[in-house]
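Chain A, query sequence.
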Amino acid sequence: MSKDLFGKALLDYQNDNYSEDIITSTNISDEDSLPLPYLFRRYSEMPKLEQTALQLAKGKVLDVGCGAGSHALWLQDKGVTVKAIDSSKGAVEVALKRGVTNTELKPLLEETETFDTILLLMNGTGIFQELSQVAHYLKHLKSLLNPDGQILIDSSDISYMYEDDDGGMWLDLNQGYPGELDYFLSYKGEKETPMKWLYLDFETLKTACLTIGLKCDKVIDGEHFDYLARLF
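Chain A, predicted structure.
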């Protein structure tokens, strides 16, 4: 079971107990810090991909994996009807404290309402966990769309992380899809239960969408192998 260290970190920052950042790593990358202030950023501090997604959001919006609620708050301030969900109890508490009016502690697969726009940002495909789960999640997302609804999701092609100094690839094809990672998180010396996290290149996402009857367009490329896609 998750210890919700992510939620604890968000609560510490919200309650002015900020003393250190979250530490993350994967099975193919070394430890890196995730600064807590970044999770509370304003619209002007967000990457272009996120700003674009927020601008494209329309109608009734579902913000999946809302975290501290930064995306939902911006939409709410613009008069947009938005529901924010997260599987982190601490994150939901923080989003509520910051003023997100409709927030629920709920995994995506338990959501049953329908929406005009569904947002999955900050590597939204991560929630799918593994390539074998993508179609399952996409079918559920499709079932939550109103007529003419859209899903705005971002991810990255991380194949560059498997390149050696000579530009060759050290990818072990027996290991499965290269975007399937084991994700590790720690906070204040405590380690979270490891989890699966999925990065999807655009063509793989597009193919998965086609198999379940969703169209997939690339909206914009980011600055570092990332992209924003619109599914409809």
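The chain has six helices and twelve strands. The first strand starts at residue 22 and ends at 26.
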